[in-house]
Write a structure and sequence with these properties.
(Mediterranean fruit fly) hypothetical protein; three-stranded antiparallel sheet; coiled coil; DHC; Histone Acetyltransferase, Chain A; AAA_9; 785 residues; alpha/beta
Amino acid sequence: MKRPDESQHQIFDSEEKSLTGKADLAIDEGFIEDINGILNTGDLPNLYQLEDKAAIMENMTSVAKQLARQIENSPSEMYAYFIERIREQLHIALAFSPIGDSFKERLRMYPSLINCCTIDWFMPWPVDALERVAEYFISSMKLGQAQEQAESGAAEQASVDTAESDDKKSDNVEEIVLSELELELVQIVMYFNNSVFEASERCYLELGRRNYVTPSSYLEMLKSFKSFYVRKLEEITKLRDRYTTGLEKLDFAAGQVGEMQANLYDLQPKLKILSEETERIMVNIERETAEAEKKKEVVGADEAAANEAAAAAQAIKDDCESDLAEAIPALEAALEALNTLKPADIFIVKSMKNPPYAVKLTLEAVCVLRGFKPDRKPDPSGRMVEDFWGPSMRMIGDMKFLESLKSFDKDNIPPANIKKIREKYIPDRDFVPEKIKSASTACEGLCKWVRAMDVYDRVAKIVQPKQQALAEAEADLASQMEKLNAKRAELQVILDKLQKLNDFFAEKSREKKRLEDEIDNCEKKLNRAEKLLGGLGGEKTRWSEAAQNLHKSISNIVGDVLLAGGAVAYLGFFPTEYRARILEDWNELCVRKKIPCSERFSLATTLGNPMQIRAWSLAGLPADNFSVENGIIVANSNRYPLMIDPQVQANKWIKNMEKDNDLKVIKQSDPNYMQILELSVTYGNPVLIENVGERLDSNLTPILERNVIKHKGGLFIKSGDTMLEYNPNFRLYITTCLRNPHYSPEIMVMVAVLNFMITEQGLREQLLANTVARERPDLQEKRNN
């Protein structure tokens, strides 16, 4: 109202959910009084402060100039022009419910609502409107196609097609073409709506209870019909398929029994033949094993003798090597001394004109050992004596003198030569390397060599018999090993044959074991199959009947879910007698119109879950049919329940049922009840608002109407100026202890009013259910199942 300078028109829309009277949502009456003032004068007393008026005057001056309006530039004239602009551009739309005295009282108290407004009455929907809406909803369900797919086992696709059909449905309702069944359904849903209106009037006349039939309930019925149809079609088809699969498995097990028995009949002879064959192989193995053991004993004895001969030969060889170990160091030392000699050392000896005695003695010993003959020369007395100097010079003058010493055949020294060495030279005290070294370094090495030859020859003479014995022992060992190897070869042939028998036996044993396992497995399977058939043989009949009944339920699903949708949308308000009478009337109508449905419709059978109903009963919900139907309506309605609960049965049930879900129990009189409610909407906690009266706080409207919007990937509800994040797990329950509350249509379109008040018949059913549960729990269990 501060911006009348703008050219666009301002519209203030006040819906009845915001403006209500005694029978409506609770609001501030001062709000309507302000609206009355605006309608009457266009102004409200004391609405603007001085600074606000100054700003308005300034704006209006510019507006008057722009519009070439000739106005006196005074505050009163400008303010009057301001009010005129408001009355021209501010439009107000008010919506009131004609139910009750609230509308009359407000017309009397606020005359401007008559003088300054045009009253437009919105009457109930005409028949053609109800018909066209029903045609649109029912045509979108594609009942024939979904039914055929379900009966052919494609329920899931049928559900998807039905659920998505709205998106593909044209908004042009002129193109709707309905089948005969769908045309009948359109007429039936219209009849449901009219019959509930008549029943409501009858209930008001007979019981004084006022119920309002609104288009919202009609839409609720159609939406429930569609959603229940999709859901139940999928549930029943899946359950039917489970029974069908079970029956197929039973039939398969029965067929497998015959096959397994035939298989066992074929396998038993094979196992017998294989067992006999393995026994024959085992006899051959035992015979060959015995022969191999005998051969092993012979070979073992020969091996023992050969080992003894080898040990004896080794002992002789070790003895020889021990003896030779005495001579070898001296021989190696002599050879090492020869290696140190140089041709120059030999040349020095050759150049001696008058050699020392030690030199001549050494060279003489070398000549004697090598068998060189001495020269015979006369001595000064004229007697002929042996002289080795000449042969010595010739010997050392040989270019290969040192090599001849190194390669000297030490193992075949003539006995005469070695005898002379030992008699003449070895005992000579001057024939030692230390003394010879003083005369000639070369002769020192030759002296060592001669002495080493003496030591080696003496040892060799001792070792030679032993070597002959070693040669004989090795020859004998070789002969024994030849015979032993021949016997080993014979044994290996036997062992190879035995190994082949063992391998063949192992293969046959594995084959036998595989056959035994196959027979054992076959027997176990046969036993399990026989137990399965024995244990479930009686179930086959029940499963067949259940599958047939479910198939029949699929055929009847259209009528059953239609009745269920009508019950959930319309019948929560009615007492048990009225509800039963209406359902019976609807059921008979469907049967007459040949709408596929159960002959005796039951809401608990169509929408109820036995496990869930049992849980409700444990939570305190009375076990009578009327209370169970109320529970089903609470669970399946798209609107939050408002339960008429003077006996507090519903209150107790809700508290027990939602106890583990952190239920919040509040009253409208609680100072912080809206804060608790808003937090519960955000965090998904269930909320029970108890002991409400005939009015509901207008702040509840956005929540009751479930005005959920998507914003930035999340779900939100706008409550006043606040955007509440919405959790889909949020649930709201409302109870009242009033026995006969009168709720306005504005409230009844937002909630599902449920009558939990006990009647005489309901009390009788509850007492009967409690008695049966205590006295005949078997019957109660059967009923629950």
